[in-house]
Amino acid sequence: MKISPVILVAIITLGTLFSSKQKIKSGSQYYNKQTTSINKPANIIIIFMDDMGYGDPECYGGGPYHTPHINQLAAEGMRFTNFYDAQAVCSASRSALLTGCYPTRIGISGALDHNSKIALNPEEETIAELLKTKGYKTAIIGKWHLGNKQPYLPLQNGFDEFFGLPYSNDMWPVYYDGTPWTDTTSYRSTYPPLPLYEGNQVVKTLKTLDDQAQLTTAYTERAVKYIHQNKNNPFFLYLAHSMVHVPIAASSKFKGKSGAGLFGDVMEEVDWSVGEVMKALKTNGIAENTLVIFSSDNGPWLTFGNHAGSSGGLREGKGTAWDGGLKVPFIVNWPGKIPKGTICNNLTTTMDMLPTIVDICKAKLPTKKIDGVNVIDLFLAKKDANPRDEFVYYYDRNSLKAIRKGNWKLAFPCVSQTYDKPGAIGHDGFPGKYGSDSVRLALYNLATDVGEERDVKDQHPEIVKQLTALADIYRKEIGDGLTKQVGTEVRPAAKFN
Predict the structure, then answer these.
(1) How far is it, in rounded angstroms, from Cα 62 to Cα 150?
(2) 27: Cα within 13 Å, side-chain hemisphere
């Protein structure tokens, strides 16, 4: 049978259209053949800020300073409005990001300093370790904060390179005005000068605020160099900035330039850093093969007043189980894969990054149980995707202070740090004095009450009952200091003398 030329053209055209929409299975998810290279693994960059609040980037309502590069990252990618850290404090939050676990499951809490006797257990598998099994180069530039000596430094946890600080930039013997700490009765007098590491070795010590003012530039230059060196290799770069954690400091390129005080200067400098990273990807022709993730380890440390950021109208900040402490900016950018200028309102967490990244990179999940879920369907704006529907708010050592399911949040009776007391807010780098609140059982609808101000438990007793029963499941599995329960599925942190 002869086929007319018109029909033949139509058949070829339809075949081309269908083949261009073919889906390829990668792990448990699907990617479009038009935009994903089968043979070239995606690069992964996580830019993790320190103490940046939900309301700090301009695209989340921040200002009057400007963050054009972070804005562009969002405009060309996806901005999340319900992204949570696992805890509102440094070490715990970072352990969750790298292992996909609630910190209490793996024995990490608080902020580890040079005297800490625990560290991330080497038996836990980090994103870096998992990606190395697929041939990835791995580097951390910036703050580690999960163990300050061997064998608990980054090079013993899957990273090929480490350039940065072992813990927070305020853990040094320097007063809030930049002068040496002379009060020997204070624990701060026991700190050594701030050590800057290259690999496993200290290569410099930071002793002044001027020293700290060079950190953002030093981290950025090292990150750009790393991208240039690895443009032909699949790589995982974890750029963990020390800013905007106090003491904040800006280089001479930015100090006094924002018109919005020192905090504004620092915000504009870290925004510049984001721009330099993105420029390096484009210069090397690898932007379209690189997933860039931008977020923060917890909310703003509000006691430092004008040297702290903004929670964007959320309740409280760092060091609490209110949303101002855990809900943070989160932006993902991956040209050709993540739809431009999109907003995702679904619940997501730092723990979800590990299973999502290992799926993208075709690596295996950890052998031990994790708490993260794969959220690639959200990144790809897949219709009706909702991989996570619940989240538990831990703070202190392992106190279960609240639980969220859908838009409902139930807060349990406890004592909470608060910034809503006279004298709690300081000024110009000097902290205020924390207050404390006795929290009562309360139910909030976060869809209509983002500030957690209106308790509606009396109107919804069935929701209270449901969330209480769900919380009991978590208490049994990973423990709860408030009810004196030890979890049946917890693992110890590493311990040393």
Answers:
(1) 40
(2) 17
- Residue 247: cis peptide before it, omega within 30 degrees of 0: yes
Q: Do residues 36 and 337 lie in contact, with contact meaning Cβ atoms separated by under 8 Å?
A: yes
Bridge pairing between strands 78-80 and 342-344: parallel
Residue range 163-176: mean pLDDT, rounded: 97
Helix (H) or strand (E) holding 78: strand 78-80
Domain boundary among 330, 365, 388: 388
> Secondary structure of the chain: what % helix, strand, coil (to 5)?
30, 20, 50
Q: Is 184 exposed, middle or buried (0-12, 13-18, 19+ CB in 10 A)?
A: exposed
Question: Catalytic positions, please?
Answer: 90, 145
The answer to whether the predicted template modeling score (pTM) of the entire model surpasses 0.70 is yes
CA R_g for the chain: 23
* Same-domain pairing of 446 and 343: no
Cα separation, 261 vs 30, whole angstroms: 47
Angle between helices 215-229 and 261-283 (to 10 degrees): 10
Q: How far apart are CA 19 and CA 217, in angstroms?
A: 46
pLDDT in tens, 391-410: 999 999 899 999 999 999 99
pLDDT of 246 higher than 70: yes
* 126 plus 238 within the same structural domain: yes
**DSSP codes of every residue in 184-231:** TTSGGGGPPPEEEEETTEEEEEE-SHHHHTTHHHHHHHHHHHHHHHTT
36 band by pLDDT with thresholds 50, 70 and 90: very low
Residues 195 and 280 reside in one and the same domain: yes
Distance CA 491, CA 124 (A): 9
If one counts the domains in the chain, the total is: 2
Question: 233 is in which domain, residue-wise?
Answer: 43-388
List, edge to edge, every strand of the sheet that includes 290-296: 201-206, 194-198, 161-165, 137-143, 235-240, 43-49, 290-296, 330-333, 78-80, 342-344
Same domain, 197 and 53: yes
Whether residue 426 sits in one domain with residue 383: no
**Is 9 a domain residue?**
no
Give me the amino acid identity at 308: A
Q: pLDDT at position 496, please?
A: 87
- Report how far Cα 315 is from the mean position of its chain's Cα atoms: 19
The domain spanning residue 404 has which CATH number?
3.30.1120.10
Neighbouring C-beta atoms of residue 229, cutoff 10 Å? 14
Cis ω before 151 (30° cut-off from 0): yes
**In Å, how far are 19, 132, 155, 272 from 159, measured between CA atoms?**
40, 9, 5, 25
Q: Which residues contact 28 (CB under 8 A, 6 or more apart)?
A: 359, 374
